[in-house]
């Protein structure tokens, strides 16, 4: 499997399993840091409801997602791993040249 295909598969997994609200904190160069005030801490009851909702979502499985978001995550992953992708490309070119000569 090519490197691009692996990155696309990982991007699809990340997108299907993580809510869009976390994209900025995971894929933004600033880490999603904002100058807004911090939110209040949640009560135990609301935390329990949130945990139950997360468990139900995990049991339901991955959901559908927009293509634009998939491509944005793929681009972020590919830009980070671009140096290793270029090394793989050089190895392939070297092997092809060696075979053809």
UniProtKB/TrEMBL annotation:
InterPro entries assigned to the protein according to its UniProt record, in alphabetical order: ORC5, ORC5_C
Region Disordered, residue ranges: 29-60
Biased composition annotated in UniProt, kind: Basic and acidic residues: 41-53
Domain Origin recognition complex subunit 5 C-terminal, first and last residues per copy: 1-91
Pfam families xrefs: ORC5_C
Gene Ontology, cellular component aspect: nucleus; origin recognition complex
Biological process annotations from GO: DNA replication
Protein name, entry field: Origin recognition complex subunit 5 C-terminal domain-containing protein
Organism: Brassica campestris (Field mustard)
